[in-house]
TrEMBL record, chain A:
It comes from Roseovarius pacificus. It comes from the Bacteria. It is a multi-pass membrane protein. This is Nucleoside ABC transporter membrane protein. InterPro entries: ABC_transp_permease. Keywords: Cell membrane, Membrane, Transmembrane, Transmembrane helix. Its main location: membrane. GO terms for cellular component: plasma membrane. It holds the Pfam family BPD_transp_2.
Automatic annotation (TrEMBL), chain B:
It is found in: Cell membrane. One of its GO terms (molecular function) is transmembrane transporter activity. The keyword Protease does not apply. The keyword Transmembrane helix applies. It is a multi-pass membrane protein. It comes from Roseovarius pacificus. This is Nucleoside ABC transporter membrane protein. InterPro entries: ABC_transp_permease. GO terms for cellular component: plasma membrane. The lineage of its organism: Bacteria, Pseudomonadati, Pseudomonadota, Alphaproteobacteria, Rhodobacterales. The chain crosses the membrane at residues 6-25, 37-58, 64-84, 96-115, 135-161, 192-211, 217-236, 243-265, 271-289. It comes from the Bacteria. Keywords: Cell membrane, Membrane, Transmembrane, Transmembrane helix.
UniProtKB/TrEMBL annotation, chain C:
Residues 1-23 form the signal peptide. Keywords: Signal. The lineage of its organism: Bacteria, Pseudomonadati, Pseudomonadota, Alphaproteobacteria, Rhodobacterales. Gene3D superfamilies: 3.40.50.2300. GO terms for cellular component: plasma membrane. Pfam families: Bmp (PF02608). This is Nucleoside-binding protein. InterPro entries: ABC-Purine-Binding, Peripla_BP_I, PnrA-like. Residues 27-312 form the ABC transporter substrate-binding protein PnrA-like domain.
């Protein structure tokens, strides 16, 4: 006798909903053990991470921060999920995020100090266009030459990072910045500032865009023929071809859309919360968003929830650092564990655990 | 500008040493990918190997033991990835990224007591006769043992993939896991072994960084070397020999630009730093005309339910 | 209604603005925001040593908190706000990139004192502080000029910013004074911290004949490269790097934030804290010169110590005329010393340096 995985005919509805909760519970137990090992009170540490940002005494400040931290993750992850569903693997969202930010900031800096309403819409367009163009490189190479988009998009992340450094130290450097690297602060340029729509709410245009993206993706996947084609290509590529799906168009759409959304996220970040082009502007949202997309089961609503959960662990983790003196590394490990368990329990959605006699083969 | 101050012999010798960590990590990842598994956690395994190797070398005073521990550390961490992808059938890309996150955190925790500690020195091999050969001697025969271990590993992997039965099975599993399964090969077992080998190699590469190249322990010291190793495997189009070439090229561009700067050549550093990645993309494009390509089952999840 | 009034209003409504002042009256809370991990062995490590010194000096009278590896931008704003909300009375933000976040948060918490390292923007409750590392560079330059036999000094620079350029100029001026034939070879690593790259840079310089390595990056990798090469000397950077004594590391520049952190905490406790711009050097002890080892000949060591003493006493300024810029134009006349404004924005090399600042 041995444990055996048996494929379910249909993904289990119950486990789709239950497994993330189970994972969070297991993570709390394992994380608690880790914190105890470091000599901290595990209950206090866990409750600081999950409770404090939402209901603690300073929740009025942290709740808006959840939106600020979660919005770019959700925006990028929604774009990525389209491709992941269709079997198009864009893992270079970090690069598209950077290029979108540079394009948006470039427009703003070009118009500085012109105070006109048109600047911000132009920045939005430039951001989306920049990310889109960066995403089209792996798409076109894949179409024309059949190169692997995973690797090309990943390579382009490094190129974008170098480009960012070059811009922060060169063309986009603040002329009034005493020679230090980094551009002007867009937060001090009203026409370009992506400010909170309601003061101190955390609700900036990026949050709006993320919400719209979730709704649009939901409609697209559920109602639109393109969404149907995306799902079909991912689940049954051969059937998709017979059904008349043009794989080339799909690749262009998926990489273009995810690139544009990542670019938008970058633009909203650089014109709002981050404020300026600096060498270390990117903090890994593009990679974290991949994880968010999977945590959300590639479903728009799931992604929105997963993005907020990730944001919660970031912010709660920071509070735990400040209040309890937990090292940043422990928080990083804790997040890694959460991902491990979420990925691991996902198996229960598609498979059933069975005790079975040892089969002849395998 | 004084290009004459660059000594080509010393330059080539430096490139050989500089490319060793990424070479080790890349040759391991190559085996993993040939088995049809895409493990993006190389960075996490490298840095875990770096601290395990460092801690043990400091503790025992023996760099050799340290290298063994580094390899073991990387392998143990990679088994987490194996558990996720091979047993729990999780997505490779997400699992690999999670592994990197986890490894960076773990290494920082393990390394808390080792900042500012100097590891025991790794002896440079002075190969008597060979080392005295003009030109070739300094380039090829004046390194520490690990440089040769890395080269030997490349040769072994190359020979194994090309000639041995084990290599054949590995490739079969990577190309079409369903067919390999139907033939009676144990797909999961082969992949777990490949993943562990990849982890050990990455750990070894990390330990080389912390014990020889740098040598010290600091958080985040791999500084992206694991990602470069991933690029290298692609650059090499999954061929062991070309990994060596690629590692020298990557290491070479970096060392060469530093040498050009020292010689007073004004070069745009950021743009030059992009070049290895752009070259890799170009190689990918050229390669697509070539017959060699990614293993067909790369990154796909296998479940023996059929 | 601005963000500030809403926030402070909310704080007041919850009665928290007062808790910080009343409940913790006897204990001063000091916060530190770090850009790197405290285990980096360099920049952040030394700031954390300063934090520990504050704890040791004041004992139960203060409580310190820190947050490490804080990215610049929105995350820094949140980290600083969080500390302020949790009742910190004094917050040190220890990286140039935290300048805008510090200023922004300071507006919302007028009762909390902020100290920002290496920046140039101040506010009624924001001070800036930085160290005159170029004073230490002058001493290194002198030793380098005296000790080099190949007359080639290698310099590993990080980013082309005034701070780094100032260091190169100061070291070069004093190396030339000690040895008119000396040449500098400069490598821009474009990183503050990447041990493997720093090792490669040091090796490249050594292979091109440098027998003295100066570094403006934070890891000990160049020390190890120098040790491996033999007959090369180097200097510790940011921390003492004493594990490479007596050679190759013959001396070091140590970021010593302890006296400043203790003094500023004391000022908050006494209620005498005022916004100011501090730029201290060897004299007040913010720049420490690590032990000059016996690998340096006794007479050179004596000259170096004399130089250190005259800088510390304020008798000598490392940028004293006559000095010309690299393009041959006059900069400082005989006896004239550089003003702080020029030094803070320094974007040119002095005459004699055979290199270009990357643009």
């Amino acid at each position: 006798m041995r444990l055996h995985l048996e494929k379910r005919p249909q993904p289990s509805r119950r486990w789709t909903d239950l497994s993330p909760l189970l994972a969070v519970v297991i993570t709390m137990l394992a994380g608690g053990a880790l914190f105890a090992l470091l000599g901290k009170n595990p209950v206090e540490a866990i409750s600081t991470i999950f409770w404090e940002p939402l209901f603690g005494e300073f929740a009025f400040y942290y709740r808006p921060q959840l939106l600020i931290k979660g919005a770019p993750l959700i925006l990028i992850a929604i774009g990525l999920s389209l491709g992941f569903r269709a079997g198009v693997w864009n893992i270079g969202a970090e690069g598209q995020y950077i290029v979108g930010a540079l394009s948006g900031a470039g427009v703003a800096l070009a118009f500085y100090p012109l105070d006109a309403w048109v600047v911000f819409p132009l920045m939005i367009m430039a951001g989306a266009l920049g990310g889109w163009a960066w995403g089209m490189i792996p798409a076109l190479l894949k179409l024309r030459f059949g190169t692997n988009e995973i690797l090309v998009s990943l390579m382009l992340v490094y190129v974008a990072e170098q480009l960012l450094a070059a811009m922060a130290l060169g063309p986009m450097k603040n002329p009034d910045g005493m020679g230090f690297p980094g551009s002007r602060n867009l937060q001090e340029y009203p026409a370009a500032h992506n400010a909170d729509l309601i003061a101190a709410s955390g609700l900036h245009w990026g949050v709006v865009a993320a919400t719209v993206a979730v709704i649009l993706a939901y409609i697209l996947l559920g109602r639109h023929v393109l969404g149907y084609q995306i799902r079909l290509s991912g689940e049954a590529p051969r059937a998709a071809r017979f059904a008349g799906v043009n794989p080339g168009r799909l690749i262009l759409f998926c990489l273009g859309a995810s690139g544009a959304l990542a670019g938008l996220a970058g633009m909203f970040e650089i014109s709002g919360p981050a404020g300026q082009v600096s060498i270390d502007f990117n903090v890994g949202y593009g990679f974290t968003a991949i994880i968010v997309a999977f945590l959300g089961r590639l479903h728009p609503v799931g992604i929105a929830l997963a993005g907020l959960l990730m944001a919660l662990t970031y912010i709660g983790g920071e509070i735990a650092q400040g209040n309890l003196g937990l090292p940043a590394a422990a928080i990083q490990m804790f997040q890694g564990m959460l991902l491990f368990f979420l990925l691991a329990v996902d198996v229960l959605t598609n498979y059933r655990l069975r005790l079975a006699p040892r089969p002849e083969t395998a | 500008m004084d290009l004459g101050s660059i000594n080509p012999i010393l330059l080539l010798a430096s490139i050989m040493a500089a490319s060793t960590p990424i070479l080790l990590a890349a040759i391991g990842e190559l085996v993993v990918e040939r088995a049809g598994v895409l493990n993006l956690g190389v960075e996490g395994m490298m840095i875990t190997g770096a601290i395990c190797g460092f801690a043990v070398a400091v503790g025992t005073g023996s760099p050799a033991t340290g290298f063994v521990a580094g390899a073991a550390g990387g392998a143990v961490l990679s088994l987490l990835f194996a558990l996720l992808t091979q047993v729990a059938l999780a997505n490779h890309v997400a699992s690999g990224l999670a592994l990197t996150l986890f490894g960076l955190g773990l290494s920082a925790l393990l390394g808390q007591g080792y900042v500012g500690v100097k590891p025991p020195p790794t002896a440079r091999l002075d190969i008597p006769v060979l080392g005295d050969i003009p030109v070739l001697g300094p380039i090829l025969f004046s390194h520490d043992l690990m440089v040769y271990v890395a080269l030997a590993l490349v040769a072994v992997v190359w020979a194994m993939l090309k000639y041995s039965r084990a290599g054949l099975i590995l490739r079969a599993v990577g190309e079409n896991h369903d067919a390999a399964h139907a033939l009676g090969y144990k797909v999961v077992r082969v992949r777990v072994l490949a993943i562990a080998f990849g982890g050990a190699c990455a750990g070894l590469g990390g330990a080389y960084l912390s014990l020889v190249r740098v040598p010290q322990w600091t958080e985040g010291m791999t500084a992206g070397a694991g990602w470069i190793a991933l690029a290298l495997v692609v650059f090499a189009s999954w061929k062991a020999g070309r990994v060596l070439l690629g590692a020298w090229l990557f290491g070479g561009v970096s060392v060469l630009q530093l040498n050009l700067q020292a010689a007073g050549v004004a070069i745009p550093v950021e743009y030059l730093s992009m070049s290895p990645y752009l070259i890799t993309i170009v190689v990918l494009v050229i390669m697509s005309a070539d017959k060699s390509r990614a293993p067909a089952s790369l990154g796909r999840i296998f479940h023996a339910s059929q | 209604m601005t963000l500030k009034s809403i926030l402070t209003g909310a704080v007041m409504a919850l009665g928290l603005g007062t808790t910080a002042a009343v409940a913790q009256d006897d204990k001063t809370k000091v916060g530190f925001i770090y850009v790197g991990p405290i285990g980096d062995g360099g920049w952040t490590y030394e700031h954390d040593q300063g934090r520990l010194a504050v704890e040791e000096h004041f004992g139960d009278r203060v409580e310190t908190v820190y947050q490490e590896s804080v990215p610049e931008g929105a995350d820094a704003t949140r980290a600083i706000t969080q500390m302020a909300l949790n009742g910190a009375d004094l917050i040190f933000t220890t990286s140039f990139g935290f300048m805008e976040p510090t200023i922004n948060v300071a507006k919302k918490f007028p009762n909390v004192k902020f100290e920002h390292a290496t920046g140039f923007k101040t506010a009624p409750n924001v001070s800036t502080y930085s160290a005159r590392f170029y004073e230490g560079r002058a001493i290194q330059g002198h030793i380098a000029g005296k000790m080099t036999e190949s007359n080639i000094v290698g310099y590993i620079a990080s980013y082309p910013i005034p701070e780094v350029i100032r260091g190169i100029n100061s070291a070069f001026i004093h190396a030339r004074k000690a040895n008119p034939d000396v040449q500098f070879k400069i490598i821009w690593a474009y990183t503050w911290f990447d041990p493997a790259k720093e090792a490669d840079a040091a090796t490249a310089l050594i292979e091109q004949g440098a027998d003295v390595i100066l570094q403006h990056t934070d890891s000990t990798a160049p020390q190890a490269a120098a040790e491996k090469a033999g007959n090369v000397i180097s200097f510790g950077q940011a921390s003492d790097m004493a594990e490479y004594k007596p050679s190759p590391r013959v001396s070091s520049i140590i970021d010593n934030w302890k006296p400043y952190y203790i003094a500023r905490t004391q000022a908050v406790i006494d209620g005498t804290w005022e916004s100011q711009q501090t730029w201290d050097g060897i004299g007040p002890g913010m720049v420490g010169i690590g032990e000059i080892t016996d690998a340096v000949p006794a007479d050179v060591k004596e000259e170096a110590l004399a130089l250190k003493a005259s800088i510390a006493a304020g008798e000598y300024h490392p940028f004293t005329g006559p000095l010309k810029k690299q393009d041959g134009s006059d900069w400082l006349a005989e006896g004239e010393t550089a003003d702080d404004g020029t030094l803070l924005g320094m974007n040119f090399y002095v005459e004699g340096l055979d290199a270009e600042i990357p643009q």
